[in-house]
Amino acid sequence: MKVGSGGGFRAILYTWKKGREAGGLWKLYKAMRTRNSCKTCALGMGGQKGGMVNEAGSFPEVCKKSLQAMVADMQPAIEPTFWKQNSISELRKLSPRELEHLGRLVHPIRFRKGASHFETVTWQEAYGAIIEKLRQTAADRTFWYFSGRSSNEAGFLLQLMARVYGTNNINNCSYYCHQASGVGLQTAVGSGTATVVLEDIDHADCIFVIGGNPASNHPRLMTSLMHLRRRGGKVVVINPVRETGMLKFRVPSDPVSLLKGSKIASHYVQPHIGGDLALLWGLAKAVSQLDAVDLDYLQQHCNDVEDWQHTINAITWEEIETKSGVPRSEIENIAKIYADSKRCIFAWTMGITHHAHGVQNVQAVANLALCRGMVGKPGCGLMPIRGHSNVQGIGSVGVTPKLKTQIFDALQSKYQVKLPATVGKDTLECMEAASRFELSFGFSLGGNLFGSNPDSKFAAEALSRLDMNVMLSTTMNTGHVNGLAAETYILPVLARDEESTPTTQESMFNYVRLSDGGPRRLPGPRSEVEVIAELGKRLLPEASGIDWNTMQQTSTIRQWIADVVPGYDQIADIEQTRKEFQISGRTFHEPDFATDDGKANLHTHTIPELKGRQDKELRLMTVRSEGQFNTVVYEEEDLYRNQTRRDIILMHPDDLKRLGLEHEDLVDVTSDTGSLPNILARCYESIRPGNALMYFPEANVLVSRHADPASKTPAFKGVVIRVLPSPRRSS
Ligand SMILES: Nc1nc2c(c(=O)[nH]1)N[C@H]1C(S)=C(S)[C@@H](COP(=O)(O)OP(=O)(O)OC[C@H]3O[C@@H](n4cnc5c(=O)[nH]c(N)nc54)[C@H](O)[C@@H]3O)O[C@H]1N2
Ligand SMILES: Nc1nc2c(c(=O)[nH]1)N[C@H]1C(S)=C(S)[C@@H](COP(=O)(O)OP(=O)(O)OC[C@H]3O[C@@H](n4cnc5c(=O)[nH]c(N)nc54)[C@H](O)[C@@H]3O)O[C@H]1N2
Ligand SMILES: [Mo]
């Protein structure tokens, strides 16, 4: 059956199905309702309001991914005999989905070069080997990677330990995600996160959703979009693909919407992949031609206004049209919608950041909002829709190569901690350095470096050149079986709702909330904080200022965070007050920005040529399906795009014809970086001709390591490919 809307009864039926897998719907419901913040995206759910409640208090806000993540954590254990029975080469043959479904990791396991199997080891053996290796290694030959799933407490403690040990090679998955938003917003308004809160959407009359598919990736946002439409507001979607759920969505918590479906997009613009910068400048030019620029606002609250005006006058419509792929008339039409809006929000995700000009894209979004005074008042502003549930918190508490000066100074003055002043490496730099044998030890707090990196062949090679790699994880993923270091340890950890003491997370709207934790589901896994504190105690017993025994308690770590991280002071007694709080100085309801002079900055850009225009070429985006969470694939099916498998490339019928192909032909897809043979070419009318879609992480073989110089984020959505019939032509 073809799916014509997102959400709806399918989402509810799915809940029943997952309930059965979890050992009963009631059991799953109870797990979902505990007072822990949601494990999947960063929209900010749960916490002390209880699960399935959003920041505006709406209940029940269900999302398939959060059920999947919960059920995965409720799986039985992988038995120790499993590792004896299954060789690593057999495990490599498993799909990301099969690896995830092996069960929960409960024993520390080790691989040693030359061995064919993993072996279980005791915690003592693992700790001993890790500490010995760290003692033999110069600190700057190590790196520390953090996914955004862990708590603020674990993130803070591990970065502290790594720095006291002597390195700043500390980074998180943001470098492959919203780093361009952070850098772009920092340059524009002096603060790197959303300038709005969720309630602001309730006061807006227009929202732009650029380069994202929240129907699938942030489904709870759809409730807000539905209400905005019901009030007569406009939703402008900018996306090379007409995404089913962005056209129509059935909000499960709303009976009318559930039955009839709610129209989401009022306007849908389909630029070429990478065409947004030209389109955003085109929109600004058209707004100016409509005389809708707020000059008073610009003069009072913004810098570099003249340069900006000069650029919108100088840029030609011809350049805008060719580089965006959108006709002038359509751009003028959308500009009129914006010009008529009194309160407009600009939201964006990976279609904006995953480009070699990602920061420029974000700055151009900010320019467009600022030119009509749409930042710094209620119902208006800039809203990067963040990815991982605590990626923002991890960054706030110090998981970045360079510590914020305030944190650095406070740690030294208040706690007498000695910190290195060297320049730390970002994620991609660490991979490059590992491949040059300049690093010899890696440590990952969650995540999947192999799966999330561009150029998978390179990624595996780089990781395999390490002497030792240590990964703290809940379940198995492709990164545990590919690119193994000479000695590799996988240490099983508890998920946040299994922790014996509370932890905290930060949502994309800058709210810090408490997760109560809960009973452990299985014997074996240890608390992340406990593992890190134990390593710290053994590695740096004499470290000045730090008592590792008390650091085992998350409350002690919260006291440190309160003392050193700006805006986080209320975290100190959050366990007693149980009051979530918002970090000050980040939401702007007044045009008084966090820059030195309080003004926002406009930026000018040279628009890059649109790539992939040669004969036989296509521009490729590598994206998520509805059935996955990043490198973890829960289901092979992509419900909203009506696909049942993942080894496919979706193209417009015009492109199939141009390349002499037919629907369901087997093709070889090649880029300058790599090639994927025997991919099924599928006809997909919803995509803009000239562009193609494949799934991350399988397609990462094709993605180059070329990154945005300003954010160090690879162009995951800007891959030039050639598609040829494969020798085994049809399936
Ligand atoms: N179900 C689910 N939810 C998730 C995740 C998940 O894997 N699964 N991951 C989480 C994480 S970490 C993140 S970062 C977010 C990601 O959330 P999204 O950014 O929504 O996810 P992507 O699949 O990367 O896709 C981006 C969208 O951008 C469009 N796009 C691609 N290239 C361009 C372009 O050049 N211009 C424009 N305008 N659009 C483009 C694609 O058509 C697609 O609709 O989701 C979070 N939530
Ligand atoms: N081609 C392409 N590549 C991309 C992207 C893309 O769109 N296209 N997207 C990029 C983006 S936006 C991101 S964010 C990155 C994702 O990069 P990562 O964050 O590195 O990868 P994930 O797949 O989210 O990591 C999942 C693993 O985390 C572990 N885990 C889950 N919960 C916990 C926990 O509570 N504690 C611990 N310690 N471990 C846990 C599990 O073992 C699971 O297998 O990938 C990037 N790579
Ligand atoms: Mo992400």
Structure description:
With 731 residues, this protein is of the alpha/beta class. Helix content is 35%, strand content 17%. Strands 3-2-16-15-14-4-5 form a seven-stranded mixed beta sheet. It has a six-stranded mixed barrel with strand order 21-27-24-26-25-28. The chain has a five-stranded parallel beta sheet with strand order 10-7-6-12-13. Strand 25 (665-670) and strand 26 form a beta hairpin. Helix 15 (276-289) runs antiparallel to helix 18. It is globular and about 70 Å long. The model has no long low-confidence stretch (mean pLDDT 92). One ligand MGD binds at residues 41, 65, 177, 210-213, 216-218, 238-241, 243, 271, 273-274, 276, 349-351, 387-388, 621, 623-624, 628-630, 717.
